[in-house]
Amino acid sequence: MRRVPEILEVESYRRLCDQVVGATIVRGFADGYLAKKLPTPATWARAVKGLSVTGTDRRGKLLLLETDGPTLGIRFGMTGVLLLDTEAGIEGLFYGPHSFKEEWVRGGLEFADARRLLVHDPRRLARVEIDPDLEALGPDALTLTRRQFDAALAVERGEGPAVKARLLDQARVAGVGNLLCDEALFRAGIDPRTPVSHLDDARRGALYRALRATTRTLGRRGGSHLGDHMAARSRGGLCPLDGEAMATATIGGRTTYWCPRHQR
Asked: How far apart are CA 75 and CA 238, in angstroms?
């Protein structure tokens, strides 16, 4: 089970889309929800018809389809799943759909070879875009360098926000979601409420290494929901490292779990 499509899940969607590189789009369709960032749903249909897919890319949680015309972007919200015909990019989402319903297909692309790339989203938060603005996004979390990480934690004035809130800021680092963030902080032994200015170079280094290790390890395991702390993310959950009762609060607008004993 997964909570939302984070960077690892969207990377799985990108790999799924590799299968349509070289295909020609004969029809695009989108309902009013999926096309909410466009003037009308018909804008999507007109823009994509006749395009050939030339490659795939991703910035954080934003999936990109390169074409011989504009770049097509897809954001997946909380419950968006991408399917190529009946093949899904991932098995399912925690708080997301655990079954397929045609009424939850919000739009997609149809190709000359009769295949269909579909966005399946019961909560109607997924969006399609045409030539999305990448300037609003920070560096990608899967390729983040230490220099980029330090820049993301830079403080202009005062103490700065809580470290978790800063890591969730997609303008600072693109792709870090709630589960990945909590797991990295858990591994680094850092309280998510810590103001970013309170982290010295050693603790920033530890957090950077933990974030890199988290994305690699959970990528191999199969998703953002497979962190070491995941079983403790519930009422009465105990830290798997030391048995302490997990603390919880809302930080950066997201429900957060941490161990008050080893995360300081």
From this structure: 34
